[in-house]
Specification:
single chain; seven-stranded mixed β-sheet; binds adenosine-5'-triphosphate; 7 helices; about 290 residues; Rossmann fold; four-stranded antiparallel β-sheet; elongated; alpha/beta
């Protein structure tokens, strides 16, 4: 469904260049519900904005379904945003119109897309648990309820992919659980592929797979040991997802990212010795 290879994004201003993504590889399968984690500044939002068609990549490959995000015309990009992807932000003010009711908010993108479907809009609001509040104006709803309206809006044009940037960032833990359960339901019942960007490891137990981004590159992948297990705890004391198996990502050229702390512990700077003993590959400082 999503295929990124060697994806590069450089932000240029008058005198500085920031390399936000420096050759990132990522594959997301159809029907997956996965998360992208990483520290602040690691490139998560940049990646999501590219996948959502809000920003253009500088180089590399980014293919979503039948769309090549590097080659699309502006008109195709509008089409793509309207019908292929749904987007949810942490700050849901970007998705919502305060003077309209919840129902009217969900219908708005349908009208812009050329086809209002009231029955489906009502169904979506029912799915996110707002059946009784759909005729309330937005300002009469709580922050968590508004976030649920935002989820319904993001699904209003029946997108194949849902992209969520810190969707639980500004809600309490109970609302966070509710939102993650709604995502899971949408994923299972509508078959929507879901990509969630977060720096919150507590979401880890609720997704099938987590890809960690470090310095604009995918570094580690955590895959759920039992995909049918939705582990409420999902975390060890150290904060690492213990229901997931961790893998380092190796790109096609055989490159992998070694965590900085490992390199520092062994005082490895720009060179290392690599040995293969028949079973293991051992990296040591140069003699
Ligand atoms: N429009 C922009 N112009 C210049 N630099 C940018 C722009 N957007 C992002 N960057 C830079 O690109 C890098 C990656 O930013 P990005 O917002 O993708 O990180 P992030 O992982 O989403 O961080 P956070 O969790 O804080 O949102 C950062 O160094 C950031 O300062």
């Amino acid at each position: 469904m999503i295929q990124c290879e060697g994806l590069v994004k450089i932000f240029k201003s008058s005198d500085v260049e920031v390399v936000a993504l420096q050759g990132l590889n990522l594959t997301v399968n159809q029907g997956e519900m996965m998360a992208i984690i990483g520290n602040s500044g690691s490139g998560k939002s940049t990646l999501l904005n590219i996948l959502g068609g809000l920003d253009r990549p500088t180089a590399g490959t980014a293919v979503v379904g039948d769309w090549d995000l590097l080659k699309m015309t502006d008109a195709q990009l509008v089409e793509y945003k309207r019908h292929t992807v749904g987007f949810i932000w942490q700050n849901n003010g970007r998705n919502l119109l305060p003077y309209l009711t919840a129902l009217e908010n969900v219908e708005t993108p349908m009208i812009l897309g050329g086809k209002r479907d009231r029955a489906y809009a009502m169904q979506l609001l029912e799915w996110v648990g707002l059946k009784d509040r759909m005729h309330n104006k937005l300002h009469q709803l709580s922050g968590g309820e508004q976030q649920r309206v935002a989820i319904a809006i993001s699904l209003s044009n029946r997108p194949k992919i849902l992209l969520a940037d810190e969707p639980t960032g500004s809600v309490d833990s109970e609302t966070c659980d509710t939102i993650m359960n709604i995502f899971r339901k949408m994923n299972k019942e509508l078959g929507v592929t879901i990509v969630i960007v977060t720096h919150d490891l507590t979401l880890a137990g609720k997704v099938d797979r987590i890809v960690a981004i470090r310095d604009g590159l995918t570094s580690t992948e955590f895959v759920k040991r039992n995909p049918n297990l939705d582990d409420e705890q999902g975390l060890s004391e150290a904060g690492a997802p213990d229901v997931h198996e961790a893998f380092v990502i190796i790109d096609r050229a055989g490159r992998l990212q070694v965590p900085k702390e490992y390199l520092e512990a062994l005082s490895i700077d720009s060179r290392a010795t690599l040995e293969f003993d028949g079973e293991r590959i051992v990296i040591t400082p140069p003699r």
